[in-house]
Specification:
Blueprint (H helix, E strand, L loop, with lengths): L1 H14 L17 E8 L9 E7 L8 E7 L7 E6 L3 E5 L5 E7 L5 E4 L3 E2 L13 E5 L2 E5 L9 E12 L4 E11 L3 E5 L7 E9 L11 E3 L3 E9 L9 E6 L4 E6 L8 E5 L6 E5 L5 E4 L24 E2 L5 E8 L2 E12 L3 E9 L20
Antiparallel strand pairs: 1-2, 2-5, 3-4, 3-6, 6-7, 6-8, 9-10, 10-13, 11-12, 11-14, 14-15, 16-25, 17-18, 17-19, 19-20, 20-22, 21-23, 23-24, 24-25
Length: about 375
Amino acid sequence: MQLLRLLALVIVVPLAACEIVDATGVGSPDQPTDLSYQLEPSGDPNVPLGVILTWTPPRNGDAVTYDIFGRSSTGADWQRRATTTSPSFHDAGVPQLQYYVLAVDGNSNPMGQSVIITIDERNRLPAPQSLTSITLDSAIQLSWSRNAVGTAFDYYRVYSALYDRTRATCDQWSLEGTTVSDAFVSAGLANGVTRCFAVSAVSRDGHESAWSNARTDTPRFDSRNVLVYSTEARTASAGFVFFDDATHAYGVVGASSRVDLDFTVERNATDGSLWFKPARGGVQMQLYSTTPVGDLTSIDRAASAGFSNVTIEAVPGYAYVFRVPKADGVHYGALRVAYVSATYVVFDWAYQSAIDNPELSRGSGGMFRAAP
């Protein structure tokens, strides 16, 4: 039996020295056709999990088994990788450079062989560029450039990891999900816990690109359409606390008499306009930008400077950021005004529970009126 196997290899190797080209395009009756491969991405573009080979059985129907041969370079000897009765084969681990398939009949006689295929690294796509993020409540929205999209593009793989702030490292990377879009929402995250994110692009044959730049972001608490009255209209609900230390509740509307308020809404006696006023000592604020913002999510990071104990007019569409000192350290909050009436303000808000974490908004002084 060993002699027969050696003889079979002597017969096959010369056949594999060149690719078989069928002028008809349909293959000879005893030849496996349409041999193709699909790599399995692993997260490391240089070390895929394996490769899946598939082919069409010979048209004469005499094939019983298939021998799969591979080699690591164009000058290496062919080695039989496996024998299978299925028209597919999963070669686990780092793939060979080239493969071909030999059909064998019921009498163990070699039939025709397929063409040779090459795992072509030239199909590897460039790494996605310009990964950015938007901080959300229990989620992070990611987006990136479409530079990897072309005829060979198939989909993206999105990865995430824990962020160790003391060592400034990303640990324990894992697959977050896949998408064909240049955007992805990572949901169900813990607020106040920083995570790292990165993206790779995968070609139609399974080649994975290098990763994009790593991006860190920290989900934070938020809410929509909160209504707070002015102190002149209704003192019982004229103040706001981003985080209530006593009840451990976020986004609490309270009476203007409370000593733990972060800010109150005040009415200007001259023209009736409504203003945000920092309440307890140490709370500071500033205008996010000198133009309106489209949504609360437009507020990305807090500024490193520019906060002060200033009162600023509430105007629809504009955003405001707060520096909020607490017993455990400094936190940041943000508002976007949705509506202003004669007696109350409706706004969306966000609060970063992580200490000294500015991943909330950015801003500078603005053109709005500031109370002396």
